[in-house]
Design brief:
Blueprint (H helix, E strand, L loop, with lengths): L2 H4 L6 E4 L6 E3 L18 E2 H8 L13 H7 L11 E8 L8 E8 L27 E3 L2 H5 L9 E5 L9 H11 L7 E5 L21 H13 L5 E6 L1 H13 L7 E5 L5 H9 L2 H21 L1 H4 L16 H13 L4 H8 L12 E6 L12 H4 L5 E6 L17 H14 L7 E2 L39
Helix pairs in contact: 2-14, 5-14, 9-11
Length: 469
């Protein structure tokens, strides 16, 4: 081993996928007059596109030589400026039992700082007293009126992690290769969780790990507002779990063309146990996340106290994330225990019902989205997904020397290749007959008579929540 190699360690990169059945993608330059009938020779397998999108090496910062250091470095103040600017639009959830307002931030060209009272929500009608995140203002009425378009630019819908928002550095780092390059042609928006990104809540409901209803409404609105744009999704950590659940629930009727999920915790029951079983898991990660959750709760406590099942006094002893889930998530959503919530909200099974090409990226030394929870076996059963793992990277870290994040490369490359080299008018199909694929009978909640004596439904859920507003 050379001296250079010794001080430039590499993470092992692995791809896990279904070996005997892969989704076939049709290139835009396929020669068949009717591309839907393009021969298998002209088509490419999803795994091959992922291989092309994945850098051949993963060289990370040698000073951040394990998952804890990589994860800890994410809390350091931003050193690489990522100047992404947003305009905010307020949505009202259309489902009465899930009523409430939430914010969607659209990436826009850079603009000068403004003191316009409507743009900054000076009256704080929608925004917490401390004001909007940096580089974020509200759309004006004229800007909203001009927003619809018939252009065919690819558009990315992003979901942030726990208590985060569009301002998060990891999220902007992933968007940057697509939206900051003037020649890329991408548009993007971020669906902020209820109560996140300095947004007030209007009903006593926060986000949870399977809160797919807001992103579903936004995607439908995007399809109507931008009828010619191909739509894509990307989720991070908790947002990756939500996005995976959404994709599984939508099944064949999903309006997105492809998606990437980064640092998904997958099996929340397993990650919860892993955090509680070590000192650093409990006293560093779980307690730190609980502090953020309690802070968010306190920002919205006046509205949350209106929930009939929530006892604010239960928050006094919350120190760890599972205690927050017990005191708040169980009360808000009607789960009997935090374990029931974790099992119901996990996305491991949901991936088997996804019917669009998707890429999952996880670091095996992630101390939060732990290796034990990564669904290796499930990825070997679905032709629609590929799991990319690295032996090193931490939780949404993957820091290289200089501060760039490695995971943004395969994520952006995959999305860009799907948008620009694949004919999205041709439905991706597995090499083998889809009969027998898990979840086929419950795609998008549709109910069909099972064709077998026993059928596994990946997106069956136990929670049906109704609340009096």
């Amino acid at each position: 081993m050379s001296v250079f190699s010794k001080f430039s360690p590499q993470a092992k990169v692995s791809l896990v996928h279904c070996e005997d059945n892969q989704v076939l993608l049709t290139p835009k330059d396929a020669s068949a007059p009717d591309k839907a009938t393009a021969s298998e020779k002209e088509q490419i397998q999803l795994i091959d596109l992922v291989r092309e999108a994945t850098p051949s090496t993963c060289k990370l910062n040698p000073f951040l030589f394990n998952g804890h250091l990589q994860t800890g470095y994410t809390t350091i103040k931003e050193t690489n400026e990522i100047p992404i600017y947003y305009k905010r639009k307020i949505f009202e959830q259309e489902i009465p039992s899930l009523a409430g307002q939430f914010a969607v931030d659209f990436v826009v060209p850079a603009y000068p700082k403004t003191t316009d009272p409507e743009a900054t929500d000076e009256a704080r009608k929608y925004t917490l007293p401390s004001g909007l995140p940096a580089r974020t203002t509200f759309f004006s009425k004229d800007e909203l009126a001009a927003l619809p378009s018939n252009d065919s630019k690819p558009m990315l819908v992003a979901l942030h992690g726990l208590t985060g928002g569009s301002h998060e550095v990891y999220l902007r780092a992933a968007l940057a290769p697509l939206v900051l390059d003037e020649n890329s042609g991408w548009e993007a928006c971020v669906v902020n969780g209820r109560g996140c990104a300095q947004m007030k809540i209007s009903t006593p409901l926060l986000f949870n790990a399977r809160a797919t209803w807001d992103v579903r409404q936004v995607v439908k609105w995007l399809r109507k507002t931008f009828p010619n744009r191909p739509l894509f999704g990307i989720g991070f950590s908790l947002g990756a779990n939500i996005l995976t659940n959404y994709l599984g629930e939508e099944g064949e009727n999903c309006l997105l063309n492809a998606a990437v999920v980064c640092a998904n915790p997958w099996n929340l029951d397993v990650t919860n146990v892993a955090l509680r079983n070590t000192w650093i898991g409990a006293e560093v990660y779980s307690s730190h996340m609980a502090i953020s959750l309690v802070k968010l709760f306190n920002q919205h406590v006046d509205e949350l106290t209106h929930h009939p099942r929530l006892n604010v006094n239960d928050m006094e002893n919350v120190k760890y994330i599972h205690e927050f889930d017990r005191a708040v998530q169980c009360a808000l959503w009607g789960y009997p225990t935090e374990g029931a919530y974790h099992r119901d909200a996990s996305s491991t099974d949901s991936l088997l019902a996804i019917r669009i090409p998707f890429l999952a990226i996880n670091a095996e030394d992630d101390p939060i989205s732990v290796k034990q929870a990564i669904p290796y076996d499930e990825f070997k059963q679905t032709p629609y997904g590929v799991l990319l793992t690295t032996s090193w990277g931490g939780h949404l870290g993957w820091f290289e020397l200089g501060g760039c994040r490695w995971f943004t490369k395969p994520a952006a490359n995959f999305l860009d290749r799907m948008a620009k080299t694949i004919d999205l008018s041709v439905t991706p199909k597995p090499q083998k007959d889809k009969e027998g694929l898990y979840g086929e009978q419950l795609a998008n909640g549709s109910i069909h008579k099972p064709s077998h004596a026993s059928v596994f439904y990946p997106v069956n859920r136990k929670l049906s929540m109704t609340i009096d507003n």
